[in-house]
Design brief:
This protein has about 180 residues and is mainly beta. It contains 3 helices and 13 strands. It is globular, with a radius of gyration of 16 Å.
């Protein structure tokens, strides 16, 4: 596999080695020993899958405190534009973000360490999204960063997005600056 670092410390793009022929393809989506050799020492405790239609934007979510989750994400069907935002107070990259297209076709994975906000926008007709988490989901520790905070300047590839009621109430980046 190929590991690509980003401008935000700890945020990684992972390109698995894919074996394919006329019958289809095979790739190892996770192997604890291989990922540990690559520097990902985290223990995953929960796997999640979501299905969404085009234009659905989920996020930007974060769990705080002892429930802070690291996430290893990938798309199993379709395509999404996936974004991680550094909201760690005192971080030298606070307010910076990394965006990447993840698709069933490119098979890339995205590692988002604990303490970063994460979200994705479905750009295909539908998408099946998978993520491994380092902590259990704890709704009492969850917070949402506004996907359209003007200080972030994230160029989401679709303008007409659909949000959950919770995501419509996302906080500004400034709200996260003080912990």
């Amino acid at each position: 596999m190929n590991i690509i670092t980003t401008e935000i410390e700890g945020v990684l793009i992972i390109e698995p080695k894919v074996f394919g022929d006329h019958r289809g393809f095979f790739f190892e989506s996770y192997s604890k020993s291989r990922y540990q050799q690559a520097g990902l020492q985290e223990e995953f405790v929960q796997d999640n899958v979501s299905f969404s239609k085009k234009g659905i934007l989920r996020g930007l979510h974060v769990q705080k405190g002892p429930s802070a989750q690291g996430k290893l994400v990938q798309v199993l069907l379709g395509e999404v534009y996936d974004v991680a935002v550094d909201i760690r107070p005192g971080s030298k990259t606070f307010g910076k973000w990394v965006g990447i297209y993840l698709s069933a076709e490119n098979k890339k994975q995205f590692w988002i360490p604990p303490g970063l906000a994460h979200g994705f926008l479905v750009t295909s007709d539908e998408a099946l999204f998978s993520y491994k988490c380092t902590k259990y989901y704890d709704p009492s520790q969850e917070s949402t960063l506004a996907y359209d905070d003007p200080s972030l300047k994230i160029p989401w590839p679709l303008q007409d997005v659909k949000l959950s009621e919770k995501d419509k109430l996302g906080k500004s980046l400034q709200d996260f600056a003080h912990g």
